[in-house]
Amino acid sequence: MVGGEAGERRGKQHRSVRSARTRRWPIACGSAPHLSAHLAAYTARVPETLLPDPTLLDRPGEACGVFGIFAPDAETARLTYFGLFALQHRGQESAGIAVSDRETLTVFKDLGLVAQVFDETTLSALHGDIAIGHTRYSTTGSSVWENSQPVYRQIDANGIALAHNGNLTNTGELAERLGKLFATTDSELMTEAIAQAMGMHNLTLPNALMKTLPAFRGAFTLAIMDRDTLVGVRDPHGFRPLCLGRHEHGWVIASETAALDILGAEFIREVEPGEMVVIDATGVRSMRPFSTPEPNLCLFEFVYFARPDSTLYGHNIHAARRRMGEQLADQAPAVADVVVPVPESGIPAAQGYAAASGIPFRDGLVKNRYVGRTFIQPAQSMRDRGIRMKLNAMPGELRDRRVVLVDDSIVRGSTTRQLVTMVREAGATEVHLRISSPPYRWPCFYGMDTGDRSTLLAADRSVDEIAEFLEVDSLAYLELDRLLDATSVPAAGFCTACLSGRYPTDVPVTGDKFLLERS
Ligand code: SF4
Question: Domains (ranges, CATH) in the chain?
Fold first, then answer.
Protein backbone atom coordinates (compact mmCIF):
# COMPACT_ATOMS: atom_id res chain seq x y z
CA MET A 1 0.00 0.00 0.00
CA VAL A 2 0.98 3.55 -0.39
CA GLY A 3 1.56 5.45 2.77
CA GLY A 4 -0.72 8.29 3.68
CA GLU A 5 1.22 9.93 6.46
CA ALA A 6 0.87 13.57 7.25
CA GLY A 7 2.22 16.03 9.74
CA GLU A 8 3.20 19.62 10.07
CA ARG A 9 6.46 20.69 8.62
CA ARG A 10 9.54 21.22 10.64
CA GLY A 11 9.78 24.54 12.38
CA LYS A 12 6.15 24.43 13.52
CA GLN A 13 4.71 22.34 16.30
CA HIS A 14 4.92 18.68 15.41
CA ARG A 15 1.60 17.05 14.67
CA SER A 16 1.90 13.68 13.08
CA VAL A 17 -0.64 11.17 11.88
CA ARG A 18 0.38 7.55 12.15
CA SER A 19 -0.23 5.36 9.17
CA ALA A 20 -1.34 1.79 9.71
CA ARG A 21 2.21 0.49 9.25
CA THR A 22 4.75 2.99 10.25
CA ARG A 23 5.27 6.43 11.64
CA ARG A 24 6.96 9.10 9.62
CA TRP A 25 7.08 12.69 10.71
CA PRO A 26 6.94 15.56 9.59
CA ILE A 27 6.01 14.04 6.30
CA ALA A 28 4.41 16.38 3.91
CA CYS A 29 2.57 14.27 1.43
CA GLY A 30 0.09 11.50 1.26
CA SER A 31 -3.40 10.62 0.24
CA ALA A 32 -5.76 13.32 -0.92
CA PRO A 33 -7.47 13.97 2.46
CA HIS A 34 -4.12 14.37 4.17
CA LEU A 35 -2.90 16.60 1.39
CA SER A 36 -5.95 18.80 1.81
CA ALA A 37 -5.18 19.11 5.49
CA HIS A 38 -1.75 20.29 4.58
CA LEU A 39 -2.95 22.81 2.09
CA ALA A 40 -5.03 24.32 4.83
CA ALA A 41 -2.12 24.25 7.22
CA TYR A 42 0.39 25.93 4.95
CA THR A 43 -0.97 29.11 3.63
CA ALA A 44 1.99 31.14 4.79
CA ARG A 45 4.11 32.63 2.06
CA VAL A 46 7.85 32.31 1.90
CA PRO A 47 9.44 35.01 4.05
CA GLU A 48 10.33 37.88 1.80
CA THR A 49 13.95 37.42 2.72
CA LEU A 50 13.97 33.96 1.11
CA LEU A 51 12.92 35.31 -2.25
CA PRO A 52 15.37 36.55 -4.85
CA ASP A 53 15.78 40.19 -3.97
CA PRO A 54 15.53 42.39 -7.05
CA THR A 55 18.03 44.74 -5.48
CA LEU A 56 20.54 41.92 -5.28
CA LEU A 57 19.99 40.25 -8.65
CA ASP A 58 20.31 41.35 -12.23
CA ARG A 59 19.72 38.01 -13.83
CA PRO A 60 16.85 35.76 -14.72
CA GLY A 61 15.78 33.60 -11.79
CA GLU A 62 17.41 30.20 -11.93
CA ALA A 63 15.77 27.12 -13.30
CA CYS A 64 14.92 24.22 -10.98
CA GLY A 65 17.10 21.20 -10.24
CA VAL A 66 15.85 17.62 -10.59
CA PHE A 67 17.48 14.41 -9.47
CA GLY A 68 16.58 10.73 -9.38
CA ILE A 69 18.23 7.49 -8.28
CA PHE A 70 17.38 3.80 -8.59
CA ALA A 71 19.81 1.96 -6.33
CA PRO A 72 18.73 -1.09 -4.33
CA ASP A 73 20.86 -1.54 -1.21
CA ALA A 74 21.87 2.12 -1.13
CA GLU A 75 20.67 4.97 1.06
CA THR A 76 18.86 6.65 -1.80
CA ALA A 77 17.39 9.54 0.22
CA ARG A 78 20.82 10.46 1.54
CA LEU A 79 22.34 10.21 -1.93
CA THR A 80 19.51 12.38 -3.25
CA TYR A 81 20.25 14.94 -0.55
CA PHE A 82 23.81 15.25 -1.80
CA GLY A 83 22.64 15.33 -5.40
CA LEU A 84 20.32 18.21 -4.53
CA PHE A 85 23.13 19.90 -2.67
CA ALA A 86 25.06 19.96 -5.95
CA LEU A 87 21.99 21.42 -7.69
CA GLN A 88 21.24 24.07 -5.08
CA HIS A 89 22.24 26.87 -7.48
CA ARG A 90 19.25 25.99 -9.70
CA GLY A 91 16.64 26.83 -7.05
CA GLN A 92 16.67 28.04 -3.47
CA GLU A 93 13.01 28.47 -2.58
CA SER A 94 12.17 24.92 -1.59
CA ALA A 95 13.62 21.42 -1.57
CA GLY A 96 12.05 17.98 -1.45
CA ILE A 97 12.73 14.27 -1.69
CA ALA A 98 10.36 11.38 -2.52
CA VAL A 99 11.47 7.86 -1.67
CA SER A 100 9.98 4.39 -2.24
CA ASP A 101 10.72 1.19 -0.36
CA ARG A 102 8.57 -0.64 -2.95
CA GLU A 103 5.59 -0.56 -0.57
CA THR A 104 5.37 3.01 0.61
CA LEU A 105 6.08 6.17 -1.34
CA THR A 106 6.91 9.02 0.99
CA VAL A 107 7.56 12.68 0.22
CA PHE A 108 9.24 15.20 2.46
CA LYS A 109 9.52 18.79 1.30
CA ASP A 110 9.66 22.25 2.74
CA LEU A 111 10.54 25.84 1.96
CA GLY A 112 14.20 26.72 2.21
CA LEU A 113 17.62 25.53 1.14
CA VAL A 114 18.46 21.83 0.98
CA ALA A 115 20.52 22.03 4.17
CA GLN A 116 17.68 23.85 5.96
CA VAL A 117 14.96 21.40 4.88
CA PHE A 118 16.80 18.16 5.66
CA ASP A 119 18.85 17.04 8.62
CA GLU A 120 20.25 13.77 9.86
CA THR A 121 17.05 12.83 11.67
CA THR A 122 14.85 13.52 8.67
CA LEU A 123 17.03 11.65 6.23
CA SER A 124 17.42 8.62 8.45
CA ALA A 125 13.61 8.23 8.40
CA LEU A 126 13.48 8.12 4.59
CA HIS A 127 14.18 4.60 3.35
CA GLY A 128 13.93 2.97 -0.04
CA ASP A 129 15.51 1.80 -3.27
CA ILE A 130 14.20 4.63 -5.44
CA ALA A 131 14.20 8.37 -4.82
CA ILE A 132 13.73 11.64 -6.64
CA GLY A 133 14.53 15.16 -5.49
CA HIS A 134 13.86 18.76 -6.45
CA THR A 135 15.18 22.23 -5.73
CA ARG A 136 12.70 24.90 -6.74
CA TYR A 137 12.75 28.36 -8.16
CA SER A 138 9.17 29.41 -8.83
CA THR A 139 8.46 30.07 -12.48
CA THR A 140 4.79 29.10 -12.20
CA GLY A 141 2.96 29.84 -8.98
CA SER A 142 3.98 31.49 -5.73
CA SER A 143 6.66 30.45 -3.29
CA VAL A 144 4.32 28.65 -0.93
CA TRP A 145 4.68 25.26 0.63
CA GLU A 146 1.96 23.63 -1.46
CA ASN A 147 3.79 24.57 -4.68
CA SER A 148 7.02 22.91 -3.57
CA GLN A 149 8.03 19.60 -5.16
CA PRO A 150 8.04 16.65 -5.66
CA VAL A 151 4.32 16.75 -6.37
CA TYR A 152 2.48 13.64 -5.16
CA ARG A 153 -0.69 11.90 -6.35
CA GLN A 154 -2.17 8.69 -5.05
CA ILE A 155 -3.66 6.29 -7.59
CA ASP A 156 -5.56 3.45 -5.96
CA ALA A 157 -2.88 1.41 -4.19
CA ASN A 158 -0.02 3.08 -6.03
CA GLY A 159 1.24 6.65 -6.06
CA ILE A 160 3.46 8.86 -8.17
CA ALA A 161 5.82 11.68 -7.36
CA LEU A 162 7.04 14.19 -9.93
CA ALA A 163 9.87 16.74 -10.01
CA HIS A 164 9.80 19.30 -12.84
CA ASN A 165 12.28 21.75 -14.33
CA GLY A 166 10.87 24.12 -16.94
CA ASN A 167 7.60 25.79 -17.78
CA LEU A 168 4.69 24.56 -19.85
CA THR A 169 3.36 26.96 -22.47
CA ASN A 170 -0.14 25.41 -22.63
CA THR A 171 -0.90 25.51 -18.92
CA GLY A 172 -4.33 27.16 -19.21
CA GLU A 173 -5.48 24.77 -21.93
CA LEU A 174 -4.30 21.78 -19.90
CA ALA A 175 -6.07 22.99 -16.76
CA GLU A 176 -9.35 23.31 -18.64
CA ARG A 177 -8.99 19.91 -20.25
CA LEU A 178 -8.26 18.21 -16.95
CA GLY A 179 -10.94 20.12 -15.11
CA LYS A 180 -8.31 21.10 -12.59
CA LEU A 181 -8.58 24.84 -12.52
CA PHE A 182 -7.73 24.76 -8.81
CA ALA A 183 -4.19 23.61 -9.60
CA THR A 184 -1.61 26.29 -8.88
CA THR A 185 1.35 25.03 -10.91
CA ASP A 186 1.94 23.41 -14.28
CA SER A 187 3.81 20.62 -12.45
CA GLU A 188 0.65 19.78 -10.52
CA LEU A 189 -1.31 19.61 -13.78
CA MET A 190 1.20 17.23 -15.34
CA THR A 191 1.04 14.99 -12.29
CA GLU A 192 -2.74 15.03 -12.45
CA ALA A 193 -2.75 14.11 -16.15
CA ILE A 194 -0.38 11.19 -15.58
CA ALA A 195 -2.32 10.02 -12.52
CA GLN A 196 -5.61 10.14 -14.46
CA ALA A 197 -4.10 8.04 -17.26
CA MET A 198 -2.83 5.48 -14.77
CA GLY A 199 -6.06 5.38 -12.79
CA MET A 200 -8.64 5.46 -15.61
CA HIS A 201 -6.83 3.23 -18.07
CA ASN A 202 -5.00 1.03 -15.60
CA LEU A 203 -1.65 1.86 -17.20
CA THR A 204 1.85 1.43 -15.86
CA LEU A 205 3.78 4.65 -15.23
CA PRO A 206 5.82 4.38 -18.47
CA ASN A 207 2.72 3.65 -20.54
CA ALA A 208 0.78 6.49 -18.89
CA LEU A 209 3.66 8.80 -19.77
CA MET A 210 3.66 7.62 -23.38
CA LYS A 211 -0.02 8.55 -23.50
CA THR A 212 0.11 11.91 -21.71
CA LEU A 213 3.47 13.51 -22.51
CA PRO A 214 2.63 14.44 -26.14
CA ALA A 215 -0.09 16.79 -24.83
CA PHE A 216 2.40 18.89 -22.88
CA ARG A 217 3.91 21.93 -24.63
CA GLY A 218 6.94 23.97 -23.66
CA ALA A 219 9.79 23.07 -21.35
CA PHE A 220 9.69 20.02 -19.11
CA THR A 221 12.56 17.99 -17.83
CA LEU A 222 11.07 15.51 -15.37
CA ALA A 223 12.10 12.98 -12.76
CA ILE A 224 9.08 10.81 -11.95
CA MET A 225 8.64 7.71 -9.86
CA ASP A 226 6.10 5.30 -8.56
CA ARG A 227 6.78 2.53 -6.07
CA ASP A 228 8.86 0.44 -8.51
CA THR A 229 10.03 2.63 -11.38
CA LEU A 230 12.12 5.75 -11.94
CA VAL A 231 11.61 7.71 -15.16
CA GLY A 232 13.55 10.65 -16.60
CA VAL A 233 12.03 12.77 -19.40
CA ARG A 234 13.21 15.63 -21.59
CA ASP A 235 10.71 17.51 -23.72
CA PRO A 236 11.23 17.28 -27.51
CA HIS A 237 13.15 20.57 -27.51
CA GLY A 238 15.34 19.60 -24.57
CA PHE A 239 15.20 23.14 -23.17
CA ARG A 240 16.51 21.96 -19.80
CA PRO A 241 19.31 19.46 -19.39
CA LEU A 242 19.22 15.95 -17.93
CA CYS A 243 21.98 13.37 -17.77
CA LEU A 244 22.22 9.68 -16.97
CA GLY A 245 24.89 8.26 -14.71
CA ARG A 246 25.95 4.88 -13.32
CA HIS A 247 26.29 4.56 -9.57
CA GLU A 248 27.93 1.55 -7.92
CA HIS A 249 24.49 0.48 -6.69
CA GLY A 250 22.37 1.50 -9.65
CA TRP A 251 21.45 4.44 -11.87
CA VAL A 252 21.21 8.20 -11.45
CA ILE A 253 19.51 10.97 -13.44
CA ALA A 254 20.30 14.61 -12.72
CA SER A 255 19.93 18.10 -14.19
CA GLU A 256 23.68 18.49 -14.31
CA THR A 257 26.75 16.28 -14.33
CA ALA A 258 28.03 18.02 -11.18
CA ALA A 259 25.36 16.07 -9.26
CA LEU A 260 26.85 12.80 -10.55
CA ASP A 261 30.36 13.86 -9.56
CA ILE A 262 29.40 14.50 -5.95
CA LEU A 263 28.16 10.89 -5.67
CA GLY A 264 31.09 9.35 -7.52
CA ALA A 265 28.68 8.26 -10.25
CA GLU A 266 30.00 7.77 -13.76
CA PHE A 267 28.56 9.98 -16.49
CA ILE A 268 27.02 7.74 -19.15
CA ARG A 269 25.31 10.22 -21.49
CA GLU A 270 22.85 13.06 -21.74
CA VAL A 271 19.20 12.09 -21.96
CA GLU A 272 18.27 13.21 -25.48
CA PRO A 273 15.59 15.77 -26.29
CA GLY A 274 12.33 13.88 -26.62
CA GLU A 275 13.68 10.82 -24.82
CA MET A 276 12.26 9.02 -21.81
CA VAL A 277 14.58 6.75 -19.82
CA VAL A 278 12.85 4.10 -17.71
CA ILE A 279 14.81 2.52 -14.87
CA ASP A 280 13.50 -0.45 -12.94
CA ALA A 281 14.61 -3.86 -11.68
CA THR A 282 15.20 -5.00 -15.27
CA GLY A 283 17.66 -2.19 -16.04
CA VAL A 284 17.51 0.96 -18.18
CA ARG A 285 15.51 1.30 -21.36
CA SER A 286 14.80 4.21 -23.68
CA MET A 287 11.35 5.15 -24.97
CA ARG A 288 10.31 7.90 -27.42
CA PRO A 289 6.98 9.55 -26.64
CA PHE A 290 7.42 12.38 -29.15
CA SER A 291 7.45 12.09 -32.92
CA THR A 292 9.74 14.98 -33.86
CA PRO A 293 12.46 15.99 -31.41
CA GLU A 294 14.04 19.35 -32.21
CA PRO A 295 16.96 20.19 -29.88
CA ASN A 296 16.82 23.70 -28.41
CA LEU A 297 18.88 23.61 -25.23
CA CYS A 298 18.66 26.90 -23.33
CA LEU A 299 21.73 28.91 -24.35
CA PHE A 300 21.69 30.55 -20.94
CA GLU A 301 22.66 27.21 -19.40
CA PHE A 302 26.05 27.86 -21.03
CA VAL A 303 26.10 31.58 -20.19
CA TYR A 304 25.00 31.55 -16.58
CA PHE A 305 22.70 28.84 -15.20
CA ALA A 306 24.72 25.64 -15.22
CA ARG A 307 27.58 25.08 -12.81
CA PRO A 308 31.02 25.77 -14.28
CA ASP A 309 32.11 22.21 -13.48
CA SER A 310 29.19 20.65 -15.39
CA THR A 311 29.32 19.57 -19.02
CA LEU A 312 26.62 20.12 -21.63
CA TYR A 313 26.64 18.81 -25.19
CA GLY A 314 29.92 17.19 -24.16
CA HIS A 315 31.68 20.47 -23.30
CA ASN A 316 32.80 21.91 -19.99
CA ILE A 317 30.87 25.04 -19.03
CA HIS A 318 33.78 26.92 -17.45
CA ALA A 319 35.92 26.53 -20.57
CA ALA A 320 33.04 27.76 -22.75
CA ARG A 321 32.62 30.85 -20.56
CA ARG A 322 36.34 31.59 -20.86
CA ARG A 323 36.02 31.39 -24.63
CA MET A 324 33.12 33.86 -24.45
CA GLY A 325 35.52 36.29 -22.75
CA GLU A 326 38.16 35.69 -25.40
CA GLN A 327 35.62 36.36 -28.14
CA LEU A 328 34.52 39.51 -26.34
CA ALA A 329 38.10 40.82 -26.19
CA ASP A 330 38.43 40.21 -29.92
CA GLN A 331 35.10 41.82 -30.76
CA ALA A 332 35.22 44.76 -28.33
CA PRO A 333 38.77 45.67 -27.22
CA ALA A 334 39.28 48.41 -24.63
CA VAL A 335 42.24 50.54 -23.62
CA ALA A 336 42.40 49.82 -19.90
CA ASP A 337 44.63 48.92 -16.95
CA VAL A 338 42.74 46.02 -15.36
CA VAL A 339 40.05 43.46 -16.15
CA VAL A 340 37.66 42.97 -13.22
CA PRO A 341 34.90 40.32 -13.09
CA VAL A 342 31.51 40.72 -11.47
CA PRO A 343 31.74 37.76 -9.11
CA GLU A 344 31.08 34.98 -9.43
CA SER A 345 29.36 34.49 -12.75
CA GLY A 346 31.57 36.98 -14.62
CA ILE A 347 34.85 35.37 -13.54
CA PRO A 348 35.53 32.90 -16.38
CA ALA A 349 34.62 35.43 -19.09
CA ALA A 350 36.86 38.03 -17.41
CA GLN A 351 39.69 35.48 -17.30
CA GLY A 352 39.20 34.88 -21.02
CA TYR A 353 39.05 38.61 -21.75
CA ALA A 354 42.25 39.24 -19.76
CA ALA A 355 44.11 36.34 -21.42
CA ALA A 356 43.12 37.42 -24.93
CA SER A 357 43.72 41.15 -24.39
CA GLY A 358 46.87 40.97 -22.27
CA ILE A 359 45.28 43.33 -19.70
CA PRO A 360 45.91 42.12 -16.12
CA PHE A 361 43.05 40.31 -14.33
CA ARG A 362 42.22 41.74 -10.89
CA ASP A 363 39.70 40.76 -8.20
CA GLY A 364 38.31 44.24 -7.77
CA LEU A 365 34.98 43.10 -6.31
CA VAL A 366 34.32 40.67 -3.49
CA LYS A 367 31.07 38.77 -3.07
CA ASN A 368 29.36 38.02 0.21
CA ARG A 369 28.12 34.56 -0.75
CA TYR A 370 25.48 34.18 1.94
CA VAL A 371 23.66 37.47 2.30
CA GLY A 372 21.15 36.94 -0.51
CA ARG A 373 19.41 34.12 1.35
CA THR A 374 19.32 35.37 4.89
CA PHE A 375 16.27 34.49 7.01
CA ILE A 376 16.64 37.73 8.92
CA GLN A 377 14.97 40.76 7.44
CA PRO A 378 17.62 43.44 6.93
CA ALA A 379 16.80 46.89 8.25
CA GLN A 380 15.48 49.26 5.59
CA SER A 381 18.65 51.32 5.84
CA MET A 382 20.59 48.19 4.88
CA ARG A 383 18.22 47.29 2.05
CA ASP A 384 18.75 50.76 0.68
CA ARG A 385 22.38 49.85 0.31
CA GLY A 386 21.23 47.45 -2.44
CA ILE A 387 24.13 45.84 -4.22
CA ARG A 388 26.47 46.61 -1.32
CA MET A 389 24.69 43.88 0.64
CA LYS A 390 26.09 41.44 -1.85
CA LEU A 391 29.26 42.89 -3.33
CA ASN A 392 32.02 45.11 -2.04
CA ALA A 393 34.73 46.96 -3.94
CA MET A 394 38.49 46.62 -3.39
CA PRO A 395 39.83 50.18 -3.76
CA GLY A 396 43.42 48.87 -3.84
CA GLU A 397 42.65 47.14 -7.16
CA LEU A 398 40.52 49.88 -8.68
CA ARG A 399 41.90 53.28 -7.62
CA ASP A 400 43.27 55.41 -10.45
CA ARG A 401 42.71 52.59 -12.95
CA ARG A 402 40.82 52.26 -16.19
CA VAL A 403 38.64 49.22 -15.58
CA VAL A 404 37.15 46.66 -17.97
CA LEU A 405 34.23 45.33 -15.94
CA VAL A 406 33.03 41.92 -17.21
CA ASP A 407 29.69 40.26 -16.48
CA ASP A 408 27.71 37.51 -18.20
CA SER A 409 24.34 39.26 -18.61
CA ILE A 410 22.16 42.23 -17.69
CA VAL A 411 18.44 41.73 -17.25
CA ARG A 412 16.89 44.70 -15.44
CA GLY A 413 19.94 46.93 -15.11
CA SER A 414 19.40 48.58 -11.75
CA THR A 415 21.97 46.41 -10.00
CA THR A 416 24.53 46.91 -12.75
CA ARG A 417 24.09 50.65 -12.49
CA GLN A 418 24.77 50.54 -8.73
CA LEU A 419 27.78 48.37 -9.40
CA VAL A 420 29.27 50.86 -11.83
CA THR A 421 28.79 53.62 -9.26
CA MET A 422 30.51 51.49 -6.64
CA VAL A 423 33.50 50.86 -8.90
CA ARG A 424 33.81 54.58 -9.62
CA GLU A 425 33.52 55.45 -5.92
CA ALA A 426 36.38 53.02 -5.27
CA GLY A 427 38.55 55.23 -7.48
CA ALA A 428 38.27 53.83 -11.03
CA THR A 429 38.90 56.56 -13.60
CA GLU A 430 37.02 54.81 -16.42
CA VAL A 431 34.56 51.89 -16.54
CA HIS A 432 34.27 49.89 -19.77
CA LEU A 433 31.49 47.33 -19.38
CA ARG A 434 31.68 44.09 -21.37
CA ILE A 435 28.85 41.53 -21.31
CA SER A 436 29.49 37.96 -22.48
CA SER A 437 26.03 37.52 -24.05
CA PRO A 438 23.82 39.64 -26.35
CA PRO A 439 21.23 42.11 -24.97
CA TYR A 440 18.45 40.30 -23.10
CA ARG A 441 15.44 41.74 -24.95
CA TRP A 442 12.66 39.11 -24.79
CA PRO A 443 10.97 37.28 -21.90
CA CYS A 444 11.56 33.59 -21.34
CA PHE A 445 8.57 31.23 -21.38
CA TYR A 446 10.60 28.09 -20.75
CA GLY A 447 11.38 28.20 -17.06
CA MET A 448 13.45 31.31 -16.38
CA ASP A 449 11.86 34.04 -14.35
CA THR A 450 12.62 37.28 -16.17
CA GLY A 451 9.41 39.16 -15.48
CA ASP A 452 7.55 40.73 -18.38
CA ARG A 453 9.21 42.57 -21.22
CA SER A 454 8.70 46.00 -19.73
CA THR A 455 11.17 45.12 -16.95
CA LEU A 456 13.98 44.20 -19.34
CA LEU A 457 16.58 46.94 -19.68
CA ALA A 458 17.38 46.13 -23.30
CA ALA A 459 13.77 45.62 -24.44
CA ASP A 460 13.45 48.96 -26.22
CA ARG A 461 16.86 50.59 -25.75
CA SER A 462 19.84 50.76 -28.07
CA VAL A 463 23.27 49.81 -26.72
CA ASP A 464 24.19 53.52 -26.59
CA GLU A 465 21.06 54.29 -24.56
CA ILE A 466 21.88 51.44 -22.18
CA ALA A 467 25.44 52.75 -21.79
CA GLU A 468 24.04 56.15 -20.93
CA PHE A 469 21.63 54.66 -18.38
CA LEU A 470 24.39 52.64 -16.74
CA GLU A 471 26.78 55.63 -16.81
CA VAL A 472 29.68 53.66 -18.30
CA ASP A 473 32.42 54.99 -20.57
CA SER A 474 31.78 52.22 -23.09
CA LEU A 475 29.57 49.15 -23.38
CA ALA A 476 29.67 46.06 -25.58
CA TYR A 477 27.64 42.86 -25.65
CA LEU A 478 28.98 39.66 -27.19
CA GLU A 479 27.42 38.97 -30.59
CA LEU A 480 25.14 35.92 -30.81
CA ASP A 481 27.25 34.13 -33.45
CA ARG A 482 30.36 34.53 -31.33
CA LEU A 483 28.51 33.28 -28.25
CA LEU A 484 27.37 30.20 -30.14
CA ASP A 485 30.91 29.62 -31.40
CA ALA A 486 32.20 29.82 -27.82
CA THR A 487 30.07 26.81 -26.84
CA SER A 488 32.13 24.76 -29.34
CA VAL A 489 28.89 23.20 -30.58
CA PRO A 490 27.14 26.07 -32.41
CA ALA A 491 25.04 23.73 -34.55
CA ALA A 492 23.96 21.42 -31.72
CA GLY A 493 20.61 23.19 -31.33
CA PHE A 494 19.97 26.08 -28.94
CA CYS A 495 17.09 28.22 -27.79
CA THR A 496 18.12 31.87 -28.17
CA ALA A 497 14.64 33.38 -27.83
CA CYS A 498 15.39 35.90 -25.08
CA LEU A 499 18.30 37.23 -27.17
CA SER A 500 16.89 36.91 -30.69
CA GLY A 501 13.10 36.94 -30.27
CA ARG A 502 12.92 33.64 -32.20
CA TYR A 503 10.87 31.30 -30.03
CA PRO A 504 11.11 27.63 -30.97
CA THR A 505 7.48 26.99 -29.96
CA ASP A 506 4.20 28.84 -29.81
CA VAL A 507 4.23 30.92 -26.64
CA PRO A 508 1.36 32.22 -24.53
CA VAL A 509 0.29 35.83 -24.98
CA THR A 510 0.98 36.33 -21.30
CA GLY A 511 3.88 34.83 -19.41
CA ASP A 512 2.08 35.32 -16.11
CA LYS A 513 3.61 32.91 -13.59
CA PHE A 514 0.53 33.32 -11.38
CA LEU A 515 -1.91 32.41 -14.19
CA LEU A 516 -3.42 29.44 -12.36
CA GLU A 517 -3.58 31.21 -9.03
CA ARG A 518 -5.57 34.05 -10.57
CA SER A 519 -8.04 31.81 -12.40
S1 SF4 B 1 14.33 32.16 -23.77
FE2 SF4 B 1 16.46 32.47 -23.07
S3 SF4 B 1 16.49 31.84 -20.91
FE4 SF4 B 1 14.61 31.01 -21.84
S5 SF4 B 1 15.13 28.94 -22.55
FE6 SF4 B 1 15.45 30.30 -24.30
S7 SF4 B 1 17.63 30.89 -24.14
FE8 SF4 B 1 17.04 30.05 -22.16
Answer: 6-296 (3.60.20.10), 316-500 (3.40.50.2020)
